[in-house]
Structures are given as structure tokens and as C-alpha cells.
Amino acid sequence: xxxxxxxYVSLALLCIITYFLKSEGRRLSxxxxxxxxxxxxxxxxxxxxxxxxxxxVLQEGYSRYKGGVFKIAELHCWTVVVTGSxxxxxxxxxxxxxxxxxVALQEFIQEEYTIGRELMSSAYHTPLLxxxxxxxxxxxxxxxxxxxxxxxxxxxxxxREGQWTPxxxxxxxxxxxxxxTNRLFVGVPLCIFxxxxxxxxxMLNSTFLHRLLHNFDLIGRNRDFCELNKTFSNDLMVGATxxxxxxxxxxxxxxxxxxxxxxxxxxxxxLLNPILNExxxxxxxxxxxxxxxxxxxxxxxxxxxxxxxxxxxxxxRVLLLNAPAIHTSSMTLTxxxxxxxxxxxxxxxxxxxxxxxxxxxxxxxxAVDRLDKMDSFLKxxxxxxxxxxxxxxxxxxxxxxxxxxxxxxxxxxxxxxIYADPDVFNPWRFSNMQNAGETAKxxxxxxxxxxxxxxxxxxxGRFFASxxxxxxxxHLVVNYDMKMEKEAAVPPSSFVSHSLIPDLKAxxxxxxxxxxVG
Length: 518
Ligand code: HEM
Prior knowledge:
Blueprint: H1 3-27, H2 40-65, E1 69-73, E2 78-82, H3 85-93, E3 99-100, H4 101-108, H5 111-114, H6 117-121, H7 125-156, E4 165-168, H8 169-185, H9 193-202, H10 207-217, H11 223-244, H12 251-258, H13 261-286, H14 297-303, H15 314-342, H16 344-361, H17 365-369, H18 372-384, E5 392-394, E6 404-407, H19 409-413, H20 462-479, E7 480-484, E8 494-496, E9 499-501, E10 507-512
Parallel strand pairs: 2-6
Antiparallel strand pairs: 1-2, 3-5, 4-10, 5-6, 7-10, 8-9
Helix pairs in contact: 1-2, 7-8, 7-20, 8-15, 9-10, 11-12, 11-13, 11-15, 13-15, 14-15, 15-16, 15-20
Protoporphyrin IX containing FE (HEM) is lined by residues 101, 105, 126, 129, 321, 324-325, 328-329, 332, 388, 390-391, 451-453, 457, 459-462, 464-465.
């Protein structure tokens, strides 16, 4: 594109965005503004500040208006921030007809242009993460454990003790998380892959055959499939963010020019359709007599599908659930790894806990549930390293219909009236709390702990995430010594819009240990 065209396009975009900020800003003029001016053109500067520095903008608003509301300019809209436990609790109780998270999500991912309308109009896939996982996670735990062990062996390739090896932390953990997540999501395919699976079981002692076969026997381990899931969530997020900038009438054109998410969707269908079709065939043939019915998300999606929803939407639902699962978990684990690498004394405490619990209860989901210090470490990590906040959409009058709402999670987590010495990372903060019970658990949410958000739309994947993350950390503290390759300090995270991003490039040194829990 010629420079002059770029200039015209930029100017047009600026005018459009300014127009939006101006008209929406007028409707919200009774709500105080933080981070810049409320005036149409000047508010755009505030929007840039929010994009680059939302940590400080939200903290400033929280300090000034705690217990009330304030608004911040974003690149495409205004967002109203709700603060204080009472208001957050109130927000939680408001029904979806008034404050709608689903509508906010549809708007956030620009569903009409990215994945199409039919999917979210019947979002039956989301509740399955709570209901089926609660029912089956104990039964599926050995699979998760097996995948964690195999994935680390493959990704780290450290067979000998005593030798330090540098590993790109985030890249490696994203691969591990992708495999573990998809072991649960798409598991062991039937038919053509089953003979290979059995052969691998027989040949387990032959390293060569094992390595040769393992890449083919599980779709969840298929590199292409993992790559696709990473690409899909990036394409979805980048695409949706670009489309959001345009006014409605330009969106169809922008979608045609800017979006690449449809390619990922087509590839997802190509990879999953053979397995889906085979399962539909077996279900048709065997009905209730199908004794070896697989137990994974793909099957739950098939079994729970309302009759008016076409089965062709199932592969896309698998991709759609991978999107919030992979980067959240891998980034949290990356941060956890940095903290362990810088503080080997944390590793020692966690190792001791894993050993004691495993000796008393074996290595089961129940044992993992008993790792209170691990819960505390993860919970503190997400208190200390948080930014993201809940998004919902108003349908009211004081906060006019169509307004986006969110909470300032990080400011709450750093409020000294709630947490003593909030600027200090204290991994045992929650496990040392007297009579804390369930509230000390990583998955427990409240108006004062918002890492998974709070209420009806709190992250439905957090129960799986908790087991997965605790299992991965247990594997790390049992099997490896870890230290940072460069400085012995946690690499600083960066803040982009409402997300906290850990250093994605840092290397961690790994050395295999010769210990086991038995
Ligand atoms: C440490 C890991 C994770 C973190 C920190 C996290 C955090 C969150 C947060 C903050 C939200 C609410 C977003 C908002 O209100 O704007 C959310 C929603 C969601 N998360 Fe997670 N999540 C994690 C892991 C997972 C996993 C492993 C899955 C799937 C197995 C998952 C599935 C979802 C889904 C489907 C939603 C949307 C809920 C809805 O539509 O009501 N998450 N997550």
C-alpha cells in the first residue's frame, strides 16, 4: 500500500473511532473518567494509555472510586469499571437478562465475523466443562498423569541426571499444556488408531517404536493438531480485535480482508471429522450397547448435543474450548516455573508435600486435591501476577444498555485492606490462613479473589486447570532441579490492554533429579 493510502486509511479510522468514543461517551457522562479526558478527540489519547498501561489506570481509578464506578476509554469503546466487594457481589447476582456475559463474549470475539452465529446461540459446550469434568476427572486422572509424564519426557528429552540443559520455558509448557488438554478433549481415537495404541502398549519398552508411534496414536498428541489450536486462538483474538475497531457497516468488508480464522476452522474440521464420523457411525450401529464409548470432551459434545444442533458444529466447539484453555494455563505455568527456578526453597516445600501426600494416598486426583501448599502457591501467584478482569454487558438505564462492564482484579488483589503486605509474594499466604477451608483452594472465587472471575460466569475450566497445573508442578518438583539461565530473578511481565503477559522468551535450566515419591 502506498504511504498516502496508509495515511488516509489511518485518518478515516481515527475519525470513526473518535465518533464512537464521542457518542458512547455522552451516554456515560454521569460516570467519572479515569486515565485521560472524556472529550471526544482527547479521549483517544486516554484509550492509548489504557492499552499500554491499564495496570496503573485501573489502580488509579480503584484508589479514587473504590466502592463505586468509573469509566476508561478503550480503542473501540468505553468500559465501566465496577469496584468494591459489595458492588462486585451485586454484579454477580444480576441475571443474564440484565448483565449478559454471553452477549459480551459474542461481541468480544465478534462471533458473526469470526466463527459464525450458530455456535454461540447454542453454547451447550461450556457447561460440560463443569458437569462432565466434575463427574469424570477422577476416572480420567491416570490419563492426565500419563500425558504429563510423556510430554515432559518428549519436550525436555532429559534422560541422564546431573546435566543442566536450557529450555525455552513458555514454548515447552505450551506444548505440554496443549497435549494434556487435548488428551482430555479428544483422547484416544477409535478404529484406525486403536491397533497402533495397542501395539504401543505391547512395545512400551522399545524406545524407538514408542517414539515412532506416539505421534500417531493420539490426535491430542498430533503436532499438527496442537499447532492448529495455538493458531486458532491467535487468529480468533487478533481477528476479533481488528474487527472490533470498525463500525458495523464496514465489518463485513474488514472481515473479508483481515480474517484468517476460517483457514484454521477448515483444518480443524479436516483433522477431527474422520474421528467424529467414526464415532457417529459406531453410536448409530451400537446405540446403548456401545460398551467402549470413549470418555472425552469430543464424546460429551456428541452425547449432549441438542437435537436441533448439527453435528458439524462439534469440531469447532473443540477448537473454541481449546482457545481459553491453552494460553491461560501455559502462561500461568510459565510464571510458576520462573518462581520455582528463582526460589528453589519453594520447590523443596512443594516436593515434601507431594512426597508425603503420595505416600499416604497414592497418586490420584484425591491426592492432588490434598496438596494445600500447591493450592496456596498457585493462588498467590495469580493474586500477585493478575490483571484480567470480568467483562459483561449492561442492559440497564443507570449504566445504559450496550455498555461493557468489568472489575479491576489486580487492584483488588493489591488492596491492603484485603491482603496484608500485598506487595510481598508469600507462597504460603493461603495455606497459613486459620480455618480457611475451601476458601484457600486455588479454584475458590470471591469478590476479593477474581483471578477466575466470580459468579455464574466464573471460568468453568478452572477445576480441570487446577488438577492439570498441580499435576504439572508436582512432576516438576519431583523430577527436576530448575534455575534461570540468566539472572536469578523472575523476568518482568508486560501489560497489554487488560492482559498480563509473562516473559515468553526466557530460558530455564533443567537438571534431572534421581528422586521418586515411593
Ligand atoms: C490458569 C488457567 C486459567 C485462567 C487464569 C482462566 C481464567 C478465566 C477468566 C478470567 C475467565 C472469564 C473471562 C471474562 O469474564 O472476561 C475465563 C472464562 C472461561 N474459561 Fe478459563 N481460565 C483458565 C483455564 C481454563 C481452562 C483450562 C479452560 C477449559 C478447559 C477454560 C475455559 C474457559 C471458558 C469456556 C470460559 C468462558 C466462560 C463462559 O462462556 O461463561 N479456562 N477463564
